């Protein structure tokens, strides 16, 4: 087992899911719900996010093949996308989703795009292509990151009281900095493959 891919996948998915930064959004989406109902929403959102990430991780390569997109191009595009998301996190410019009555908030916006957004989908597909057979490492990384995110969201009320608004902002910016570094790494690898092969 390639533990480096496992750790990188875990960190990337966890950072992109940004469970701590999304606590205020989760609390707003589930405002007025009983704790049991809020927990059910979080459970459902986590399961949906894991399913979408796994489907994209395993099926993404076939989509690329059909569209004749190289992995190097995807790495550059994915790196740029992650960098833009990281910059939004650092500047506090991430959009807060608008809730609509009658919508299942567990699926959208909680699972998609908050937990499993386009950046996360691109990332898991990139990690799946890193070696000949990284499937177990990527799957474990995805499940592990989403499990920790699920635990954090399950403790949303307590964490919100503990860290406060300023604490959530600080954590989000720290995660954004790590994501920016990862984005540069992924993008530079793609550039090398495109121009130095």
TrEMBL record:
Keyword field: Cell membrane, Membrane, Transmembrane, Transmembrane helix
Domain of life the protein comes from: Bacteria
InterPro entries, sorted: Multi_antbiot-R_MarC
Stored PANTHER family: UPF0056 MEMBRANE PROTEIN YHCE (PTHR33508:SF1)
Transmembrane segments: 44-64, 71-90, 110-129, 136-156, 162-184
Entry's family note: Belongs to the UPF0056 (MarC) family.
Location of the protein in the cell: Cell membrane
Protein name, entry field: UPF0056 membrane protein
Primary localisation category: membrane
Topology in membrane: Multi-pass membrane protein
Pfam families per record: MarC
């Amino acid at each position: 087992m390639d533990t480096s891919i496992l750790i990188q996948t875990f960190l990337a998915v966890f950072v992109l899911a940004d469970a701590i930064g999304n606590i205020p959004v989760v609390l707003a989406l589930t405002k007025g719900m009983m704790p049991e109902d809020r927990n059910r929403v979080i459970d459902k959102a986590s399961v949906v996010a894991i399913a979408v990430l796994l489907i994209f991780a395993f099926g993404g390569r076939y989509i690329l093949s059909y569209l004749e997109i190289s992995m190097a191009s995807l790495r550059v595009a994915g790196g740029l996308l992650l960098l833009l998301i990281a910059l939004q996190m650092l500047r506090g410019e991430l959009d807060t989703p608008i809730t609509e009555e009658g919508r299942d908030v567990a699926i959208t916006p909680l699972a998609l795009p908050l937990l499993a957004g386009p950046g996360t989908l691109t990332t898991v597909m990139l990690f799946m292509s890193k070696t000949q057979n990284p499937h177990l490492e990527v799957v474990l990384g995805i499940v592990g990151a989403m499990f920790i995110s699920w635990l954090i969201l399950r403790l949303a009320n307590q964490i919100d009281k503990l860290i406060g608004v300023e604490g959530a902002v600080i954590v989000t910016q720290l995660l954004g900095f790590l994501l920016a570094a990862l984005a540069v790494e992924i993008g530079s690898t793609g550039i090398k493959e495109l121009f130095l092969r």
